[in-house]
């Protein structure tokens, strides 16, 4: 390239920081040849060959670096190389490296100083020891990308000057505002103030618009930190073996079978009228007994007639008349003393009467166990609990129905016990969000840093990612986002290493249990080191990064960086452990029974007090007797 001073004005210095393999040719004045001590009349043109002073930084005035001279069709220096790779050895030059604390790329440790009683003296000593330009360098930086750049600096022979931007705590990577201005780390790299950027940068088109990126040294799983709901329903363990439909079927069968028992019992009672209704063997016995009594009665009548005939013939008529008169007199006295006469006694008939039970009297005892509806419900419920009946019912239809209902109860109880045992043996179920579909269908809001993450989901092809992008919002503070996730209605998008760190740094165990890292990765994002736009170091940095990745050093440095919180990975709960917490259902059922019994007792006392005792026919001194209305 022809040498021209207009190329070296301060406004164009940024070009010569990026284009380093260039040779400037400048024509100098003509000079004469000297052969010994004699001067010849031939003159030749001298050309100066120069280049940029890389890696020496250009400060203020551009001074080119002279490589060689061309004169008389030959170079002054023999075997000179003009286009050698200047990035192989940077000569211990100071390279500015802008950093941003982010797991696992960069960690920051603030050095501690010994406390001094005088506060002003502390500030003065700190200002004297660390000037304004190097005060930020007092922080100690470490991490995966820091170790990676240290290895590259040793190979390329340069020094590193780590610093953070003034708005690193707020702007972090930086955003592109509406007035086309940049903030944060992106502004620092876009304006060429830094040579390298260590900030866990994603290898995306968005970042490539502001800087150059090395080849990816790692691939991170970007996922969501979601709320986890522990379904601690130990208090209802007794009803968990069956679902709602199964319980509805069991209760329906309980009442329906109880009603069927009640209907069968009353149908049999209606057919037989009483417990000793239609019995063929009893009727045959009664018929035979009546025939036998009729024969005995005839024989006795014949004997009486024969004896009366003998008496009439032998006894005197007067004695017979006195005996008959005496019998008639005693008969009249008996009839007069009785309340009813023969005619009324003939009209008297037995009326079947069943006393109506009153609230303060015990009801009449049933002739069978299934004669009352309450008894049917109680006994069917007891059979469902595999409790034996007090006795077998009388009717054969009831016995057959009881046998089939026993088979049904055995099947239901076996299924219930098997499911109940499985619930006690298995760990507590956790309600988690593990896929993008679950997250898109849930009412949980999503948060991520920057506009580029929201655009990434909105421009995706699948509808679930688009739904997530529609409800995604900017989350500048990871710790605040983790607290929102713990509240149960928020999900935070970041790499899995940072999410593990956020989960491990929660203070309480309960807070750590409520944070769950989604198992499905939204994307496997390649991570790179940032370089200045059109940086001359890119080829060399790519070569060394590839060598470090192939050598396994990046994996080793990554494991060292996440060693502190790597042990906080969610472990599945141990199985087949039955603790007291799982038996809360028995205590709850017992308390529930106590409450129901107490309420029933109170209801019974109120009924006795305000209904039974207020009845006019009630007599507190006579219990168990049928009361009638008093006639005044």
From TrEMBL:
Pfam families: Lig_chan, Lig_chan-Glu_bd. One of its GO terms (molecular function) is ligand-gated monoatomic ion channel activity. GO terms for biological process: detection of stimulus involved in sensory perception. One of its GO terms (cellular component) is plasma membrane. Residues 131-191 form the Ionotropic glutamate receptor L-glutamate and glycine-binding domain. This is Ionotropic glutamate receptor L-glutamate and glycine-binding domain-containing protein. It comes from Anopheles farauti. Belongs to the glutamate-gated ion channel (TC 1.A.10.1) family.
């Amino acid at each position: 390239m022809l040498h021209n001073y207009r190329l070296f004005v301060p406004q164009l210095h940024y070009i010569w920081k990026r284009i380093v393999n260039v040779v400037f040719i400048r024509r100098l004045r003509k000079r004469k040849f000297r052969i010994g001590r004699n001067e010849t009349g031939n003159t030749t043109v001298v050309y100066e060959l120069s280049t940029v002073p890389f890696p020496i930084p250009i400060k203020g005035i551009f001074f080119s670096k002279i490589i060689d001279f061309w004169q008389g069709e030959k170079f002054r220096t023999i075997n000179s190389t003009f286009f050698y790779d200047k990035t192989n050895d940077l000569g211990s030059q100071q390279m500015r490296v802008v950093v941003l604390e982010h797991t696992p790329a960069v960690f920051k440790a603030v050095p501690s100083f010994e406390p001094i009683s005088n506060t002003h003296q502390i500030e003065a000593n700190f200002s004297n020891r660390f000037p304004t330009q190097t005060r930020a360098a007092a922080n100690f930086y470490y991490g995966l990308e820091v170790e990676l750049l240290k290895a590259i600096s040793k190979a390329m022979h340069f020094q590193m000057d780590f610093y953070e931007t003034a708005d690193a705590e707020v702007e972090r990577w930086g955003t592109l505002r509406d007035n086309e201005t940049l903030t944060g780390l992106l502004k620092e790299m876009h304006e060429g103030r830094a040579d390298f950027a260590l900030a866990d940068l994603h290898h995306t088109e968005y970042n490539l618009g502001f800087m150059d990126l090395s080849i990816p040294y790692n691939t991170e799983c970007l996922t969501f930190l979601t709320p986890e709901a522990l379904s601690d329903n130990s208090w209802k363990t007794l009803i968990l073996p069956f679902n709602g439909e199964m319980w509805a079927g069991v209760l329906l069968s309980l009442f329906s079978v109880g009603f069927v028992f009640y209907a069968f019992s009353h149908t049999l009672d209606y057919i037989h009228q009483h417990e000793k209704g239609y019995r063929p063997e009893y009727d045959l016995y009664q018929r035979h007994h009546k025939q036998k009594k009729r024969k005995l009665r005839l024989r006795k009548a014949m004997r009486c007639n024969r004896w009366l005939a003998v008496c009439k013939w032998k006894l005197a008529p007067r004695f017979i008349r006195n005996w008959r008169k005496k019998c008639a007199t005693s008969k009249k006295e008996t009839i007069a003393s009785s309340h009813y006469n023969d005619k009324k006694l003939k009209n008297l008939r037995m009326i079947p009467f069943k006393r109506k039970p009153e609230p303060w009297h015990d009801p009449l005892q049933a002739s069978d166990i299934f004669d009352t509806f309450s008894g049917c419900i109680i006994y069917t419920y007891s059979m469902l609990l595999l409790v034996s009946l007090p006795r077998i019912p009388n009717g054969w239809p009831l016995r057959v129905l009881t046998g089939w209902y026993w088979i049904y109860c055995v099947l239901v109880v076996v299924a219930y016990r098997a499911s109940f045992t499985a619930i006690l043996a298995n760990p507590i179920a956790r309600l988690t969000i593990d896929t993008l579909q679950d997250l898109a269908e849930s009412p949980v809001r999503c948060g991520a840093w920057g506009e580029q993450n929201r655009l990434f989901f909105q421009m995706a092809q699948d509808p679930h990612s688009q739904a997530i992008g529609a409800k995604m919002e900017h989350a500048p503070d990871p710790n605040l986002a983790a607290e929102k996730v713990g509240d149960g209605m928020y999900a935070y998008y970041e790499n899995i290493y940072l999410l593990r760190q956020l989960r491990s740094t929660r203070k309480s165990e309960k807070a750590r249990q409520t944070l769950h890292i989604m198992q499905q990765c939204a994307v496997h994002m390649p991570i790179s080191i940032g370089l200045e736009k059109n940086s001359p170091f890119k080829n060399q940095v790519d070569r060394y990064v590839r060598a470090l990745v192939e050598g396994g050093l990046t994996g080793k440095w990554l494991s060292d960086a996440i060693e502190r919180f790597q042990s906080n990975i969610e472990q599945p709960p141990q199985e087949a452990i039955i603790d007291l917490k799982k038996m809360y259902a028995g205590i709850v059922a017992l308390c529930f029974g106590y409450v129901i019994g107490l309420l029933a007792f109170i209801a019974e006392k109120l009924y006795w007090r305000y209904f039974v005792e207020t009845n006019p026919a009630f007599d507190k001194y006579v219990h168990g007797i049928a009361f009638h209305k008093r006639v005044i």
